[in-house]
Each structure stands twice: as C-alpha cells, then as structure tokens.
C-alpha cells in the first residue's frame, strides 16, 4: 500500500461515509479509522466495508495526547482527515466543556502528533480539517458565507469549531504544516444520528410522536446530502491548495418548517398514511438559546477550482434518506435505546 490515511471520527455520521469513499476508491491506501465510539460513533455504520484488506479500526480518544501520539507512531499516517468531534449544538449548550476537550484540545493533540512524526518534513503530507459553516455566525435574510467571511460563532459548539479552525491555520502559518480546511453546511442522509432535525423527525413520525419545531420554525439552513460532502472532502484532500479553505454547500436553503412539511408529505406517501397525518404532529416548542437565524453557503470556489457540485436534488436526497431509515429500523432502534432516551426526555420536556 502506497499511503496511510488516518481518518478521525470515522464511525460517526459523516465520517463513516468518508471512510467508505476512501476505502472503496483507493484500494492502494491503508485507511485507519480512529474513533472513541462515543454515543455518536457506531461500528454498525461500517459493517459493509469492515472486512476489506485496506481498512483498520482503532479505538482511541483524541483528547488523550499520549494515546494519539502512540497511534501516530504505530501507523505513521501520510495524511489525516479529521472529523472526530462533539457535533450537536443543543448538547454544547448543556455541556460546553466536552466540546472544548474534543474539538479544541483533541484537534491540537492531532496537530502536535502530526508535527512530531513528520519531523517538520512535510513532503507528500496533508492535514485536512473538517469544519462547519456555523463558525461564520448568522446571516439575515440576504447574503452568503464565502471563504473570506469573518468568523463570528455564537454557540459553544461553533465557538469550539472556530477555535479548532484557528489552531489548524496557526500550525500552517507557524510551522508550515500542510493543511486544508472545509466548512460545510448541514448534512443529511443515511446513518444520521436522530438527535438532529431530519432523522429526529423521521423517527418521531414512525413512532407517532410530536415533531418539535424550535421557535417560529423560520430558521433557515442549507442542506447537503452526506455522500456529496464525502466526495467534496475526497476532492479537497487530494486537490485542494495547501493552506486554503473551501466552503461546501448544497445551494439548497429551507426554512425548518417548510422542510418538515416536505418530510411529512414524503413520509405519508411512503408509509401509505392519509395525506396531512404526519404534519399534525408538528409542535412549536421553546426556542434554542442563541439560535442562528440563517446559514447559506457560497460554494463557488470549490465548484470553479475543483469542479465539485452536489449530485442530487434535496427532494431526491430526502427520499433516499427516508428509504434508508425505513429499511434500517433495527439501526434506528439500536441508537435510540439506552442513553438517547435520557437525552431526549430532558431536551424535549415540553414537546
Ligand atoms: P457525529 O457526532 O455523527 O460523529 C462524531 C464522531 O466522532 C463519532 O464517531 C464519535 O465517536 C467520534 N468522537 C467524538 N469524540 C471523540 C474523541 N474524543 N476521540 C475520538 N473520536 C471521537 O458528527 P458528524 O455529524 O458526522 O460530524 C463530523 C464532523 O463534521 C465534525 O467535525 C462536525 O463538526 C463536522 N460537520 C458536521 C456537519 C453536519 O451537518 N453534521 C456539517 C459540517 C461539518
Ligand atoms: O451547519 C452545519 C451544522 O449543522 C453542523 O456543524 C452541526 O454539526 C450539525 O449538527 C448541524 O447544526 P444545526 O444546529 O443546524 O442542526 P440541527 O439538526 O440540530 O438543527 C437544524 C435546525 O432545526 C436548526 O435551526 C434547529 C432546528 N431544530 C433542531 C432540532 C434538533 C428544531 O427546530 N427542532 C429540533 O428538535
């Protein structure tokens, strides 16, 4: 095998799609998936590829600097694709320190380990940091986030991701570490953990439970099918310009309430339920504190420079996503048993 690529957080939602993309597309690479298997990490996400010769799983916590260095020394990765993170905004409001630990300290541990094993000889090496559009803050009704937009994070989650982005750039500017960053909008698709809006609503419709809409439901997000994000990461990792960041988005803005209505419509059709029955579950609940009004990505740079664009429309992607959840209800049962119930009952007391 000609290269070792270490992917962190590869048992999570997006990470598992990135691992699959790399393992299948590059049989000549050894892909090492480093993941702590928190509540969000699930090896069931990788069942179809775990037997392949170029795939290795390593259980490890990126907040543990000694463990991280030992793993880097053992596997000697040529490239890092860093996705491991605490990723849910609502959880960051309850427990910000977990986000500082994994998203900030964990990222710095990886940067240090990369410097140490590469001995500041960076030929053929690359550190790809996967980040979010939330670092840019909130837009009004107009405008887009570009790569030049100033950082203005509001939630503990986005503040921790912004901090990690700054550390990655600082290691490039200070030590010459070869880096690329991607800042992506909201993903959806297979394996999405049901604490997030779309899979939470799919799960609740299946169980005839309330669909909790924060505030007036007019908050706006740009949604991208997860496999399109994985392909963008592959492209930027291999072809992105050293030191640059790339915005990745779906050109696909939805107000939450309209998105939920579209989801209800598709669910009614697929479940053969009376038209309008799922929408009756919509329940307006207390708003998220510090809720960002609107995110919208200008993905012109990655489109013009690297030729990337989304491959499916939102309606197609949503249909594929619902079909996946309907065919994988055992997966949904597994991830919503145990601790998820405690989290759900606490978060949605008034739903
Ligand atoms: P996720 O919560 O589904 O998965 C996170 C993964 O990281 C899990 O497998 C978990 O076990 C692992 N992990 C957590 N803490 C760890 C630690 N201390 N050590 C090792 N592994 C640990 O997250 P996701 O939605 O797949 O997001 C992946 C990355 O993409 C994150 O960095 C996130 O900020 C970024 N991102 C997510 C979205 C989105 O819409 N979900 C959009 C843009 C960017
Ligand atoms: O923009 C990229 C980000 O998208 C990623 O960096 C994050 O990791 C990811 O979690 C996601 O953050 P959001 O906060 O936008 O996603 P979430 O699915 O939690 O919420 C989407 C919108 O729906 C948001 O406006 C809040 C709202 N919402 C969410 C939940 C969970 C509700 O109205 N009700 C809910 O129960």
Question: Which key phrases capture this entry?
Answer:
351 residues; alpha/beta; Rossmann fold; seven-stranded parallel sheet; 12 strands; globular; binds nicotinamide-adenine-dinucleotide; binds 2'deoxy-thymidine-5'-diphospho-alpha-D-glucose; dTDP-glucose 4,6-dehydratase; NAD(P)-bd_dom_sf; NAD
The total count of helices amounts to 12
Structural class: alpha/beta
- What would you give as the CATH superfamily of one domain? NAD(P)-binding Rossmann-like Domain
Shape: globular
Distinct ligands: nicotinamide-adenine-dinucleotide, 2'deoxy-thymidine-5'-diphospho-alpha-D-glucose
**SSE arrangement, N to C:** EHEEHEHHEHEEHEEHEEHEHHHH
Identify low-pLDDT runs.
Answer: none
Distance between the termini: 52 Å
Strand fraction equals: 15-25%
Mean pLDDT: 97
| Rg from alpha-carbon coordinates | 20 Å
Number of distinct beta strands: 12
Q: Helical content, roughly?
A: 40-55%
CATH names the topology of one domain as Rossmann fold
CATH class designation of one domain? Alpha Beta
Tell me the major beta sheet.
7 strands, parallel
Spatial sequence of strands, sheet with the most strands: 3-2-1-4-5-6-10
Oligomer: single chain
Instruction: Supply the CATH architecture of one domain.
Output: 3-Layer(aba) Sandwich
